[in-house]
């Protein structure tokens, strides 16, 4: 039996968590497809937690984990895998002799434009479907919610 519209299977007041998950899956699938087409066949979804937050100055794994909202062990594993694949390199932190900084290699820097372009395509497609104003309102609401909840989490 063919599946009809997704909304035929969702509860009348669909939980936001489910909506976010389904939209996130669309986004991840588009980015993964674009990365594979560009020759980045060894990047997996957990690795996407690394690329957006590595600065030119480098960043410690614990700071990467905090920014991405993942456990330090998970981030360390992603960094190790990406280092083995040639996307990042770790170097001693000159400000903290016990720590290392993560830097993108040239190969790692080449990932960002592909992923960003794929994300823009998804966002543009969504804007075509529901309107640019709705997407911008959604963006503003999500940024506000994220800032508010992260601020509340740090103050408790």
Feature tags:
156 residues; mainly alpha; Arc Repressor Mutant, subunit A; two-stranded antiparallel sheet; 6 helices; 2 strands; 58% helix; 10% strand; globular
Give a nutshell description of this structure:
By secondary structure, this protein is mostly helical.
List the helices and strands and how they pair.
Layout: H1 16-37, H2 61-68, H3 72-84, E1 88-93, E2 96-104, H4 106-109, H5 111-130, H6 132-155
Antiparallel strand pairs: 1-2
Helix pairs in contact: 1-5, 2-3, 5-6
Rg over alpha carbons: 18 Å
Shape call: globular
SSE arrangement, N to C: HHHEEHHH
Q: What is the mean predicted local confidence, pLDDT?
A: 90
Total helical segments: 6
Examine the coordinates and then state which fold CATH places here, giving the name of the CATH topology: Arc Repressor Mutant, subunit A
CATH class wording: Mainly Alpha
Number of domains: 1
End-to-end Cα distance: 50 Å
Share of β-strand residues: 5-15%
Number of strand segments = 2
CATH level-two architecture: Orthogonal Bundle
Strand order of the largest sheet: 1-2
Could you describe the 3D structure shown?
With 156 residues, the protein is mostly helical. It has one domain (15-155): Winged helix-like DNA-binding domain superfamily/Winged helix DNA-binding domain (Arc Repressor Mutant, subunit A), CATH 1.10.10.10. It is built from six helices and two strands. Strands 1-2 form a two-stranded antiparallel ribbon. β1 (88-93) and β2 (96-104) form a beta hairpin. α1 (16-37) crosses α5, α2 (61-68) crosses α3 and α5 (111-130) packs across α6. The model has no long low-confidence stretch (mean pLDDT 90).
